[in-house]
Amino acid sequence: MSKVIYKNLNTSPILAVGGSGVWLEDAAGKRYLDTCGGVAVSSLGHAHPRIAAAFEREAKNLAWAHAGSFTTAAAEELATRLVDSSGGLARAQFLSGGSEVMELAMKIAYQYQSERGLPDKSIFISRRQSYHGSTLGTLSISGNVQRQSVFGRLLPPAEFVSPCYAYRDQRADESEDQYGTRLAQELDEKIRVLGSENVAAFFAETVVGSTNGAVPAVPGYFRKIKAVCERHDVLLILDEVMAGMGRTGHLYAYADDGIVPDMVAVGKGLAAGYMPISALLISERIHSAMAQGSGVLGNGQTHVNHPLACAIALEVQQVIREENLLAQVRQRGEQLRSWLKESLADLDIVGDIRGRGLFVGVEFVESRATKEPFHGAGAYAAALKQEALQRGLLIYPGSGTAQGLLGNHVLFAPPFITSEDELGQMVERFSAVVRAVAH
Ligand SMILES: Cc1ncc(COP(=O)(O)O)c(C=O)c1O
Fold it and tell me: Which of 7, 36, 100, 102, when mutated, tests ligand 1's pocket best, judged by the most ligand atoms within 8 Å of its CB?
């Protein structure tokens, strides 16, 4: 009997033994086509020869050095690379997972306010229908009813405003611009009610990932939100743990929104899953307030700026740049959306297909005309996943798409290296899975 604690405590997962490109292989030799990079992680696929070579080279050089005493060329170079592409952020720190860097963002937001002599600026505002991590801090700002439910009593208080979810919430008599303005006014009002002297930061996923299924904001939304934050001296912190590092066709998803936040968190795709590594980038204003204040970052963890993880992430980023993969992500993304629309056009339960780059969501409804959220909930998501697995297809379904408990979606996040032929196979097989599962 296994000694491993699994997510599903009563069933064993499949034993994975290998992978190559967009394919994963189990112990019985069955191959699975990966439409979702696991959970938007494997952007370069499996067994990439350059990454394998980098492991051998770097592991022979230096495994680990404590960040309290040492820095490394890899950490310096990776930070410079990420900062230089950020459009205005100044410093980066590396941790192991998305929750950790989002928790760090919360701590730095408060440390910054406090060291400026504004310790009352301590309230965090986030959006409903969002996910920012599994620690108690990050879960408290996650507008994800399902993931919060067990731990509700333990969570510190946080405030929430509406998501930017045009498919469901933009009114028929409203333009995208008016919708964005209405949401910015809602945030403005929320801050006024709480008192801007009490609010530290506003958090948002640039493109909402697992909770809603690849939902980008309407054009102009983030510019208006940023203006509200600036007006009230509130930090704007973007969570791109899932959407960042090329997934939308830009290194940072906010490039499409025409803004630069005060902080951004990235994770999953940073080392394409070859290493557990994440990063938080912050502005010079925030860094210098702390540097000239206490001079000490109020957070310490064992694997800060892990040398080997940074070196592998750097090689991953180098491959993405040299192979011009972001352009490919944009092109394949358009193909994916248009092929999905074509192949699912006759299914009335497919309500919306949206996203950016290779970050695409399919939302299910009871009927296209009414947009009534699909009734299937968790059972439908599980059935889709099971059917797909049987057919050798890895998909990432979710439920609670609309208002936290209702509705279903599937998130596509295939590796950046996916060929046209492989993309076509993903769409074809997915269409067959949807048709095979009772609805
Ligand atoms: C947007 C977002 N933020 C934070 C996290 C947490 O990251 P991790 O699971 O690596 O801790 C996730 C994970 O799915 C995420 O999608």
Answer: 102
Q: How far apart are CA 208 and CA 391, in angstroms?
A: 28
Which CATH code, of 1.10.10.60, 3.40.190.10, 1.20.120.420, 3.40.640.10, is assigned to 53-322?
3.40.640.10
CA distance 133 to 136: 8
pLDDT at residue 439 tops 90: no
Measure Cα distances from 317 to 44, 57, 128, 303, 405 in Å.
Answer: 10, 17, 32, 20, 37
Compute the distance from residue 288 Cα to the ligand 1 centre, in Å. 28
If one residue of 268, 277, 359 were mutated to test the ligand 1 pocket, choosing by the most ligand atoms within 8 A of its CB, it would be: 268
Side-chain half-sphere of 420: how many Cα atoms within 13 Å?
4
What's the CA gap between 95 and 279, in Å, rounded? Answer: 6
Residue 399 has pLDDT above 80, yes or no: yes
Which atom of ligand 1 is nearest the CA belonging to 135?
A: 11
16-47+325-436 belongs to which homologous superfamily?
Answer: Aspartate Aminotransferase, domain 1 (3.90.1150.10)
Question: What is the whole-number distance in angstroms between the Cα of residue 38 and the centre of ligand 1?
Answer: 13
- All structural domains of the chain with their residue ranges: 16-47+325-436, 53-322
> In the chain, what is the straight-line distance between the N-terminal and C-terminal CA atoms, in Å?
36
Ligand 1 pocket list (CB less than 6 A):
39, 97-99, 102, 131-134, 205, 209-210, 239, 241-242, 267
Handedness of CA 279, 280, 283, 284 (dihedral sign): negative
Q: Would you place residue 81 in the very low, low, confident or very high pLDDT band (cuts 50, 70, 90)? A: very high
Residue predicted with more confidence, 312 or 153: 312
**What mean pLDDT, rounded, does the chain reach?**
96
pTM for this prediction: 0.98
Distance 239 CA to ligand 1 centre (A): 9
Report how far ligand 1's centroid is from the alpha carbon of 241 (Å).
6
Among 350, 414, 421, CA closest to 384 = 350
The conformation of residue 85, written as its DSSP 8-state character, comes to T
